[in-house]
Amino acid sequence: MNACGVALRLGLALALALPVGAGAQGPTAPSTAPSAAPGTATPNLDVLKGTWVRPDGGYVIGVKGVGADGRLDATYFNPNQLPFARAQASSDGGVLRVVLVLQAGGYAGSTYELRYDPATDRLQGTYYQAVAKQKFDVYFARR
Known about the structure:
The protein has 143 residues and is mostly beta strands. It contains two helices and eight strands; from the N terminus they run ααββββββββ.
């Protein structure tokens, strides 16, 4: 393999090893959160319960409960409490996904589309800020 191919493989390996937004935040402490049972393809939806913090701004998602249908009893804090118009979890091909839609305040239609990463115990994905029509890569770490 030539030097260009080696550099490309090394760069790809590094990119896959870094979670979204990891650069400035550095490593996080090991998690004691519940995870998928060994040998199962999909984490239990209860793994979403708890408090999740977005380190780049202190935004917080609190998940109190998860319904059998995947509906989340969840609230957003920025820093004041705002309800979600929709908070839903689902499993897609063994990946636990979360969609959170805000309608209150200046957030009309703003949406988080996140996936749970059991290796890092994070919710990571994108945030669409509807008013500004901008999309951001984000992650939430468990508090």
